[in-house]
Write a structure and sequence with these properties.
alpha/beta; Rossmann fold; six-stranded mixed beta sheet; four-stranded antiparallel beta sheet; about 35% helix; globular; binds adenosine-5'-triphosphate; binds magnesium ion
């Protein structure tokens, strides 16, 4: 197929185009405005983890951030969570500048961050009680959230008694319990096996459908981003900056057969080219040091 005949990765079916038109009319929840973060290295040099990054997320949008290791994904998430301060630029949530952590932003990290000495329910109640809820109210709300993530039966278990996927479902319940405006997730399923990961992706979409929440989900797995996202923000490294913002041309609810449409395949091929550009062989290859007998004929 010649380049002229190749399907345009921006092509959308009328249903998808209408969905994006509606999505962009929703209020903006998150504004990232010319965000830059530089760090000093111990040797005195500087690294620009993020440079001049700007984008917005709309109410109930599912936005994925995709990019290679070191392109500033976690730096971005920490800035959005208020756990770090930008060198310049700003983050606005509902038009209010973010400067510290707050209950309107729920965070789920890759590592398991539950308190091991508290039960599942107590973990979910923790933020609610800090937020001022009484014990009975926090108890009732925690049960509700555990119901939503399908773990009501495990309310009195301890984190060590749960599988990795279940722990992350508790972490999601805990993050949602404070009724945040936005859920910030940094490779939350990165440590799970492929099957559990796929199951968690389905769970997350189901949860998102039932809750009025905007999701910002970081991953370096293209298939995960394509399955989950409305839009994918592709970052590139050194310095971390916006490469392209791509609308996933698949309607919702998503069904497996939709992932074979020409529009979808064109978008996928385009992002693959962005994140794995056809470049010269790496210059950082390892030195040739052999700890085996040359000529042993195993290659
Ligand atoms: N506290 C810090 N001090 C110095 N450099 C830092 C600090 N935090 C991040 N960096 C640097 O900023 C860049 C971006 O790091 P970041 O962790 O945000 O990348 P990432 O996209 O999340 O990578 P990964 O996919 O491996 O998680 C890297 O070069 C990293 O070394
Ligand atoms: Mg990271």
């Amino acid at each position: 197929m010649s380049a002229a005949e190749a399907p345009d990765y921006r092509r959308q079916s009328p249903a998808v185009a209408e969905r994006f038109r509606q999505l962009k009319q929703r209020p903006v929840v998150l504004t990232v405005d010319r965000l830059t973060r530089r760090f000093s290295r111990p040797d005195g040099s500087e690294v620009t983890a993020l440079e001049n990054l700007s984008f917005v997320a709309h109410r109930r949008e599912f936005l994925c951030i995709l990019g290679p290791s070191g392109c500033g994904k976690s730096t971005l998430l920490r800035l959005l969570a208020g756990l770090d301060q930008p060198t310049s630029g700003r983050v606005l949530l509902d038009d209010r500048e973010v400067s510290e952590p707050g209950p309107e932003r729920g965070v789920v990290f890759q590592g398991y961050t539950l308190f091991p000495w508290l039960t599942v329910k107590q973990n979910v109640m923790f933020g609610l009680k800090i937020g001022g809820s009484g014990n009975d109210q926090a108890d009732a709300e925690a049960r509700q959230w555990l119901e939503l993530v399908g773990l009501a039966k495990f309310a009195d278990s301890y984190p060590s008694q749960l599988s990795g996927g279940m722990k992350q479902r508790v972490a999601i319940a805990r993050a949602l319990a404070n009724n945040p405006r936005i859920l910030l997730m940094d490779e939350p399923f990165g440590a799970l096996d492929a099957q559990t990961r796929a199951q968690m992706q389905r769970h997350l979409l189901q949860i998102w459908r039932n809750v009025d929440i905007t999701v910002l989900f970081i991953t370096h797995d293209l298939d995960e981003a394509l399955y989950l996202a409305d839009r994918i923000l592709v970052l590139k490294a050194n310095p971390g900056r916006l490469d392209e913002l791509i609308e996933v041309p698949v309607p919702r609810p998503r069904r497996p057969e939709q992932f074979g449409s020409p529009e979808f395949l064109a978008a996928k091929a385009h992002i693959e080219e962005l994140i794995h550009p056809k470049i010269a062989p790496p210059t950082d290859s390892l030195p040739f040091i052999r700890f085996t007998q040359v000529g042993d004929d195993v290659e």
